[in-house]
Specification:
The chain is of the alpha/beta class. The protein has two domains: 171 residues, 3-Layer(aba) Sandwich (Rossmann fold); 161 residues, Rossmann fold (3-Layer(aba) Sandwich), CATH 3.40.50.2000. It has 13 helices and 13 strands. Strand 4, helix 3 and strand 5 form a beta-alpha-beta unit. Helix 1 crosses helix 13. The radius of gyration is 20 Å and the shape is globular.
């Protein structure tokens, strides 16, 4: 196969792969390493402290995590990356602001939509879709794009072998995620309370709004509950938390674009108790790798039924549909399709069914 010169631009906020929190950084790390192993010339633009099998260009000596969201910091990172655009056949940008710069350059640009489509960004996404090749991370997310905006669907992927597996259910419930209303930490606490089961919370609380929500709404509800809270623990502790749980609670309050927690939990063998919003129905197979629940009472009852599920099926679903190796192959195919055309004329080629994985919510 012909070698491609590929630039991958990660967000600047956390190392690739992340030490603790950092879902985008995790999937970007898998992608960069996987493409490099397949013989491509891959350059990863990321914060210092990143570890990769690609060529690393560190735009900051240390990840500027404390400045998360600062547009000046992100702009500096982006300018450092795009200054090298002539060296590449294709650029894949995972930042928020970067595609605005990349869309003006003659090199083909791929941009993954890691967040939800909102009223605030809808027009921007539509404009980018006319100038870049968009990737949606779920079929549901693609269904929310502005009318006429094309995008390939490539689900996020992880390495199942990196997640210790247990065929035996544990005795506690797990919540893993940001302390934000959309992720449902308050609902998770109430589910655990109604189920009468211990709760382990592996959480991120470092932004101002997260601290405020934790103090005002979440922490007061922990009184009287058998609960343990771990803030951004080392990766090994998070993996052990997944492996040892009875079920992972995912009571989201928004249309989740993908939800890495879902496949991380299932890779460890732990089923997911979730509200079927956003991507959940196409990732979690109801009654097989978890349960889609109507409300808090339904979720509390499902926690006990989780013991009946075959945890090996959870692992198999990730291996078949959400592996990092499959994610890399899909991206490689997308890049080749773009370069086989004029690179700019037809955005986001549709991937063949054989590589497009799950084609409709709920399909196994």
């Amino acid at each position: 196969m012909e070698t491609m010169r590929i630039a991958i631009v990660a967000p600047p906020w956390f190392a690739v792969p992340p030490v603790g929190y950092g879902g985008i950084e995790l999937v970007v790390g898998y992608l960069a390493d996987g493409l490099a192993r397949r013989g491509h010339q891959v350059t990863l633009f990321a914060a210092g402290g990143s570890r990769t099998e690609a060529r690393l260009v560190a735009t900051f000596a240390e990840p500027p995590s404390a400045l998360l969201g600062d547009p000046a910091v992100e702009a500096r990172h982006i300018l450092a990356a795009y200054d090298h655009w002539r060296e590449f056949d294709i650029i894949h940008d995972h930042t928020f602001l970067g595609p605005v710069t990349g869309a003006a350059l003659p090199v083909p640009l791929v941009h993954t939509l890691h967040g939800p489509v909102t009223d605030a960004n809808r027009d921007l996404i539509a404009a980018l879709g006319r100038r870049a090749h968009l990737v949606a991370i779920s079929h549901h997310q693609r269904s929310t794009l502005p009318a006429g905006t094309r995008a390939a669907v490539i689900h996020n992927g992880i390495d199942p072998a990196a997640f210790p597996f247990s065929a035996e259910p544990g005795d506690y419930l797990l919540f893993c995620g940001r302390i934000n209303p959309e992720k449902g930490p308050v609902e998770a606490i109430e589910i655990a309370r109604r189920a009468g089961l211990p709760l382990l919370m592996v959480v991120k609380i470092n932004e101002r709004l997260e601290h405020e929500y934790w103090e005002a709404e979440v922490r007061p509800r922990l009184r009287g509950l058998d609960v343990e809270v771990k803030q951004q623990p080392p990766t090994e502790e998070k993996l052990a938390a997944y492996r040892g749980a009875l079920a992972t609670l995912f009571p989201i309050q928004w249309p989740e674009p993908f939800g890495l927690v879902l496949i991380e939990s299932m890779a460890a063998g732990t089923p997911v108790i979730a509200f079927p919003r956003g991507s959940v129905p196409e990732v979690v197979l109801d009654g097989v790798t978890g349960f889609h629940c109507r409300d808090l009472d339904d979720a509390a009852e499902a926690c006990w039924r989780a013991r009946e599920l075959d945890r090996r099926e959870c692992r198999r679903r990730v291996e078949r549909h959400f592996s990092a190796s499959l994610n890399v192959l899909r991206h490689e195919q997308l890049y080749r399709a773009i370069l086989a055309s004029d690179g700019r004329g037809e955005p986001a080629p549709t991937l063949p069914l054989a590589l497009d994985g799950i084609t409709a919510p709920g399909r196994s």
